[in-house]
Specification:
The complex is a heterodimer of chains A (about 525) and B (about 270).
Chain A: H1 6-55, H2 57-61, H3 65-76, E1 81-87, E2 93-96, H4 107-113, E3 120-124, E4 127-136, E5 139-149, H5 150-206, H6 241-248, H7 250-255, H8 260-265, H9 269-335, H10 339-366, E6 374-376, H11 378-387, H12 390-395, E7 399-403, E8 411-413, H13 415-435, E9 442-452, E10 455-464, H14 492-503, E11 506-512, E12 515-523
Parallel strand pairs in A: 7-9
Antiparallel strand pairs in A: 1-2, 1-5, 3-4, 4-5, 6-8, 9-10, 10-12, 11-12
Helix pairs in contact in A: 1-5, 5-9, 6-9, 9-10, 11-13, 13-14
Chain B: H1 2-17, E1 20-25, H2 30-48, E2 52-57, H3 60-68, E3 74-77, H4 79-87, E4 92-99, E5 105-113, E6 128-131, H5 137-149, E7 159-162, H6 166-174, E8 180-184, H7 185-189, E9 196-206, E10 209-213, H8 218-229, H9 234-240, E11 244-246, H10 259-264
Parallel strand pairs in B: 1-2, 1-3, 6-7, 6-8
Antiparallel strand pairs in B: 3-10, 4-10, 4-11, 5-8, 5-9
């Protein structure tokens, strides 16, 4: 039983249930039926005896013994009749089941009739004697004593009931067989979606990373509007349900289940279960994606942490050495009048300075960033920071555009660190556009207050019209020491990332061959 | 012209309305008797190629009345009735007798209880005697014939009645309602082991006689007689409950010629 499928279990248990009900009903009916039928049969037997006697009454008067014998035989032919005795008024037997008894006198039977003018029964265990006085008006013209065996009558009733029971049982077995087939088919139809779900769940484990595939959800009668406002179109009324659900991710499970439209349009538990599965899968995939991102982020941070630690040690040692080399080079330039020595000592000094700069950058990068949060106007800090590079942009004929949303409120952030972000991204754009020979050469900073998923967000976009970042290095640009520039340290964007992360913001890259956009999003609630 | 048409119409009407009538005198169950003799009427209808109307008659008086009205062409009766019909001058001939169980004759017997103290017919004086039937030779006239031969008359037996059937008469004897019963020998034989014995037996008389109207066209008369003798279809005979119709041998009815003198001794039965 344990190993049977639900379909078999339902069919089997339903059939057993019907069997119990039917057999129980039949047994109950039979038990009651036997009693009533026996009573009825006894009543009918007596009634038949009376009818037969009454129809032969005339022959008592004319003493037609042939007819009386015919009457005896007719009564004897009734079920369970054991003996029929017909007496005349003197007690002489004028009719009997056994002709040999004719002519005998039965005073005993005559005495039992006595003065009784009504019929009566005499019971002796199972043998019942029915005494019937044949009268004309009130005058007796003869007597009939009929004996019948109640056991024979009962056996006859039992046999009849058995016949009925067999017929009923045959019908019952047919009903059970039909119900088994019916239940098997119906349960098969009802369970099919559950089986499909089961298969999907089994497949889900090995194919969780594959795109969600939703089957047969499209409900054309529903409006396309998402009443919850979480997507452009409601997936229930869209032919593109898979895509919408995948984009919504965990929101489907959180929002759609509480949506009145969903509640009204989903019919039946099976459909609800199926849709819940799809929503759960979408949510699960969403969570997995986020988990993977978090894991990558953690790896990056681990890498950064270890690099920072290492770079701090190296930078410290290098810095000491550079200090000594730089001083030595200065000494030689001042005290040796050889022009060649002076020239080389200058080269040494410059390279020491460059190395020192790099070392400082390493040291800065490796330091733990602890932002000092204060209320500032974001737009003012951007304008203030970009002013420092205005001349550089001008010199390179790069058009600088600022589109700053005045609705942005003051928020808490570290002004200096934010300046660092702006300068690093602006310098990167400057370097990129400097190398570009063909116009347009534009660098645009845009701020905008937007609403996304019921949250207010400040979006800061740094956009250049450069040649873009090749697809294969997009994943590496935020990693330390990765640089495409000949003189770059490879720490500009990692520092930007580190500052953004330290503020609890997010940064995204969008780049193609027409330019690059860095988008920083600040959730207002997060501050 | 009109007269000729009228005559033709009357002939046609007669032809259409006329049916050969077969009457059966029987005191048995009318339905059973009708079923039984329907086979004969259908057989005859086929042979004479005209409809045969079957009439089951329970009383002799009714049969006589129909004969008077010339509404019977053929009848099957007991020999006594045949004599009565002849005596009344109806134009009939006994063309056949019925053979049953290989016999065309039967006799009447007087039965008493086995334990009865009646040893001879003469002992029946002042006893209660019942008869099987009041219309048949063997179970009425022949038992009386036995009594009359022994000199016992109506006055000797004040309590004499007809039980209606042989069985009723025999059962009356067994039950002690009668001291003796005059019945057919065949009927008595069935009850010999049920407590009765045969006291006396009469001479043999024909069982049943087929009476055919001599007013019928000769050709038709001959055809019917021939048809009766030639009835050998087992199925029909079985349904009729007979072996065959056979020509009556000469002198077969002699014993019954004085039936009236016998019945005269028993005016109540007459």
């Amino acid at each position: 039983m344990k190993n049977l499928s639900i379909q078999w279990k339902i069919a089997f248990l339903t059939s057993v249930y019907i069997l119990i009900i039917l057999v129980g009903s039949i047994l109950f009916a039979v038990a009651n039926f036997e009693k009533n039928l026996l009573k009825e049969r006894e009543k009918n037997t007596v009634k038949s005896i009376v009818n037969i006697i009454e129809s032969y009454k005339d022959f008592f008067i004319v003493r037609n013994l042939e007819k009386i014998d015919e009457m005896v035989k007719t009564i004897s032919s009734l079920e369970s009749i054991d003996e029929v005795v017909v007496l005349d008024i003197d007690g002489r037997i004028i009719g009997h089941s056994d002709i040999g008894n004719l002519g005998k006198f039965s005073r005993e039977l005559l005495d039992k009739f006595g003065q009784k003018k009504e019929a009566f029964l005499e019971k002796n265990k199972n043998l019942i004697k029915y005494f019937y006085p044949v009268t004309v008006e009130t005058t007796p013209i003869g007597y009939v004593v009929t004996s019948y065996d109640r056991e024979i009558l009962k056996a006859s009733v039992d046999f009849d009931i058995l016949k009925i029971a067999i017929q009923t049982l045959s019908i019952s077995f047919f009903v059970i067989f039909a119900s088994f087939i019916g239940t098997f088919v119906i349960s098969g139809i009802m369970i099919r979606p559950i089986k499909v779900l089961k298969d999907k769940i089994v497949n889900l484990a090995s194919n969780i990373d594959k795109p969600l595939k939703v089957e047969k959800v499209f409900k054309p009668k529903l409006s396309k509007e998402c009443t919850k406002g979480i997507s452009e179109e409601c997936w229930l009324s869209s032919e593109n349900a898979s895509k919408i659900m995948q984009e919504l991710g965990e929101l489907t499970l959180r929002e759609c289940q509480n949506c009145p439209k969903y509640k009204n349009s989903v019919s039946g538990e099976i459909e609800e279960l199926t849709y819940s599965f799809y929503m759960m899968t979408a949510s699960l995939q969403d969570y997995l994606k986020k988990l993977e991102e978090a894991y990558k982020e953690r790896e990056t941070l681990n890498c950064l942490a270890s690099m920072g630690e290492m770079s701090a040690k190296i930078a410290h040692e290098i810095k000491n050495a550079l200090y000594a080399i730089g001083n030595a080079a200065d000494y030689m330039r001042r005290n040796v009048n050889n022009p060649l020595v002076k020239e080389f000592s200058t080269v040494i000094r410059n390279e020491v300075n460059r190395l020192n700069e790099i070392t400082v950058s390493f040291l800065n990068f490796s330091k733990l960033i602890e932002p000092k949060f204060e209320y500032h106007n974001l737009n003012s800090v951007i304008e203030e920071s970009i002013k420092l590079l205005e001349d550089d942009f001008k010199n390179e004929n790069i058009q600088l555009q600022l589109e700053l949303d005045t609705n942005i409120p003051k928020i808490k952030f570290d002004k200096n660190l934010f300046k660092q972000i702006i300068l690093n991204l602006a310098i990167n754009a400057l370097d990129t556009l400097r190398e570009k020979k063909e116009p347009p050469k534009v660098f645009k900073i845009q701020t905008k207050l937007i609403e996304k998923q019921n949250s207010k967000i400040i979006r800061i976009t740094f956009e250049d019209s450069g040649t873009g970042i090749p697809e294969e290095i997009k994943d590496k640009i935020f990693k330390p020491f990765f640089s495409t520039k000949t003189k770059g340290t490879g720490l500009g964007l990692p520092i930007v990332y580190k500052i953004v992360y330290s503020h609890g913001w997010s940064i995204n890259l969008d780049s193609n061959n027409k330019g690059t956009r860095f988008i920083i999003e600040i959730k207002l609630n997060s501050n | 012209m009109v007269e000729r048409s009228s005559i033709l119409f009357l002939i046609l009407f007669y032809k259409l309305s006329y049916a050969f009538t077969l009457a059966i005198l029987s005191a048995g169950n009318p339905v059973q008797e009708y079923k039984r003799f329907k086979n004969l009427s259908e057989y005859l209808a086929k042979r004479i190629n005209e409809p045969v109307e079957l009439k089951i008659i329970a009383k002799v008086d009714q049969l006589l009345y129909l004969y008077e009205k010339e509404q019977i062409d053929m009848s099957i009766t007991c020999p006594i009735v045949y004599f009565e019909l002849k005596d009344r001058g109806f134009d009939i001939n006994a063309v056949a007798v019925i053979k049953i169980n290989g016999q065309i004759l039967e006799s009447g017997v007087i039965v008493v209880r086995k334990d009865s103290d009646i040893k001879t017919v003469k002992d029946l004086k002042d006893k209660r005697v019942t008869l099987g039937s009041s219309i048949c030779a063997s179970n009425c006239v022949m038992p009386l014939y036995v009594l009359s031969k022994e000199g016992i008359t109506y006055e000797d037996i004040p309590d004499l009645w007809s039980s209606g059937s042989d069985k009723a008469a025999i059962l009356a004897v067994i039950a002690g309602l009668a001291d003796a019963a005059g019945v057919k020998e065949e009927s008595a034989l069935k009850f010999l082991d049920k407590g009765i014995k045969i006291l006396a037996k009469s001479p043999y008389v024909p069982r049943y006689v087929v009476n055919l109207s001599t007013n019928l066209p000769k050709r038709k008369f001959r055809k019917i007689v021939k048809s009766l003798y030639h009835l050998n279809d087992e199925k029909t005979l079985k349904r009729l409950g007979i072996d065959a119709f056979v020509p009556p041998p000469a002198g077969l009815f002699d014993i019954l010629k004085d039936y009236k003198s016998i019945l005269n001794q028993y005016p109540m039965l007459k």
